[in-house]
Amino acid sequence: MSAAELERAVQLLVRQVGHWEQPRWAAAATTGNVPRADLVHRLVQEIANLAADAEGQPRRTVPRLDNDLALPDQVRVVAADLLAAGADAEVLARAAAEVTATRGAL
């Protein structure tokens, strides 16, 4: 798994949800019976955890912002952090799979 493949998965997700307004974020995801915003925030936290692990740093809780419209930007930021951490191919593959699975669940 290359950095380009993770970047592509993130771009597809952001393209899918970047124009959503609050009611769409609050709607239930197709799986898990949770709001879509919760599902995407879970993805943000998972990628942040992978980045922390790759950097050898402690995991930190990613704040849940008041405005769900910020979630696409949070996904971009944590993905960039993971790439900057120099994560190996296995970690990048895991992150891309999480992004793809989240897209499918929305």
* Protein structure class: mainly alpha
Sequence stretches where pLDDT stays below 50 over 5 or more residues: none
Distance between the termini: 23 Å
Number of helices in the DSSP assignment = 5
Order of helices and strands: HHHHH
Oligomeric organization of the protein chains: single chain
- Overall shape: it is globular
Total beta strands: 0
Helix content: 55-70%
Produce the secondary structure layout.
Layout (H helix, E strand, L loop, with lengths): L2 H15 L4 H5 L9 H20 L15 H14 L4 H17 L1
Helix pairs in contact: 1-4, 1-5, 3-4, 3-5
Give me a quick take on this structure.
The chain is mainly α. Helix content is 67%, strand content 0%. It has one domain (3-105).
What do you see in this structure?
There is one protein chain. By secondary structure, the protein is mainly α. It has one domain. Helix content is 67%, strand content 0%. It is built from 5 helices and no strands. It has helices spanning 3-17, 22-26, 36-55, 71-84, 89-105. Helix 1 packs antiparallel against helix 4 and helix 3 runs antiparallel to helix 5 (89-105). The longest helix has 20 residues, at 36-55. It starts with a helix and ends with a helix. The model has no long low-confidence stretch (mean pLDDT 95).
Give me some keywords for this one.
globular, 5 helices
